[in-house]
Structure formats: structure tokens, C-alpha cells
């Protein structure tokens, strides 16, 4: 059977619920033939405000989304049904939300524009979930990142310049004023995006508002809660990348992510280009874009 035939059959199997929901993603993700055939399959009208974050669960069966409407929504994108709509407790725009790994999609961490992080259990009452909040960041909390195969810990980053590491085994809330217990890195400028290497999860990439991407080895880092916080933004840093023409500018990293094999990091900048670089070498290369003719098309 031709490749096209396999693709059509695999898509149909997914639609009727036969086979693994994640097989399409693992078999075809990134293949040019597949990407060129992409068309709009469905529109999920599940929010009343801008949707700032979406993420898949481990099996590829559900999507978790967060919005300016402060709701967290779990949707089955194949039958287009909402599994759960949760009034989060956030009082500002939700910017990032993730399922905690290996929790049967029942535990969610999310952060918002007011800097508050909520730990939400989908099977518990709103009153219980409202108590499970971390108010440690001051200013916007931009992103939440879970650790592969780890159902207990997660990281966050924010406008206050800190990357924080929380362990749900020690606490499920924190409302201390000016709390510094869980700071893993203090970048001393806004930390706007983070990503963990999927194959070597102790490598952590951090994008900042000073045009730089820093990669840290988490084995060399700790928090005050773990008793080995160093307090210097250079501790544990393996490499730092700044595009040469941005070295004296403050151009925010808007998003970054590792490739599936951990060999490349893709970085987008506000009002600038997208860059691809080798995390073992700070010589980045600008991604080639379409010609002017193609761009107009």
C-alpha cells in the first residue's frame, strides 16, 4: 500500500477510535508529505476569550486549553466534546497550563498574568482547588513546564526573572510574602519561556528578555527548600546563545522548544526571526525563510 493510503487509513482509524490515539503524531509528525496535506479538520469553540495555551495529554487523546476567560478546558478533539470545563480560580489571563504526567489527566498546573500558579485536581471541589495556589512569583508568570515521567515536580518562569521548581510532595500551596524557597535560577531579567530536553530532562533551556537563551544542567542546581541554592544566574549554565545583531538589544524570547531528539532548540523572538541552534554549541543559524515572491503568495 502507498504511503498516502496508510495515512488515510490511519486517520480513519483515529476517527472511529480504533488504534492508539497518539499513533498519528508519532508516525507522521514533521514529515513534509503530511504537513503539505494538512487542512482544517475542526474548530473547537470552547472558550469566550483569547486562547493562550494548548497542550496534549500523554496519549494524544485530549487537549488542555487555557484562556483569558480564566477557564481550563479539557476537550476530545476527535469527537469535539468537552470532557471538563473548570473555573480555574485565576483572576487574570491564563498563559500556560499542563497535565501532570502519569496522573490519569486528573492533575493540572497553570499560571497567569497575576503571577499565581494553581494546582488543580479535576475530581476535587472548586473550594479545595482554590486553596492549592502558589503566589511566589511577582509580576506575570509566563510558562509552566512539567518534567517527563515525573508526576510530582514542575517548573515555572516569570517577569520577576526567576525560574522556580516546585515539589508537590512537600507542599501543594504557598502564600508566603516575597517567597524565595523554590527559586532554582535567578536570571535577573524577565524569564519568558522554558523548555526541558525530552531525552535528557536535566537540561533546561531558559529564554529571557535580554535576547539570550541559556541552557542549564539541573543536576548542578538547587533551591533553598532543598538546601543547595547558589543564588548566581551563571551556576549550572552550560551554554548561552544570543544572535549577534541582538547582543546589545533587549529582544524578548517569545517561545522556545527542544526537538524530539534533544539535538536542536527552536527559538522565536519578538519582532525578529526564528532561530535553530545546537544546544551543545552557541553558534546559531537563522532559519531560511521563503523568497519575497513566496512570502507575498
TrEMBL record:
| Record key words, sorted | Repeat, WD repeat
**Organism encoding this protein:** Xenotaenia resolanae
Lineage at the top is: Eukaryota, Metazoa, Chordata, Craniata, Vertebrata
Protein's name according to its UniProt entry: DDB1- and CUL4-associated factor 6
State whether keyword DNA-binding applies: no
Q: SUPFAM superfamilies per the record?
A: WD40 repeat-like
The record's InterPro entries line, in alphabetical order, gives: DCAF8, WD40/YVTN_repeat-like_dom_sf, WD40_repeat_dom_sf, WD40_rpt
Q: Does the keyword Repeat apply?
A: yes
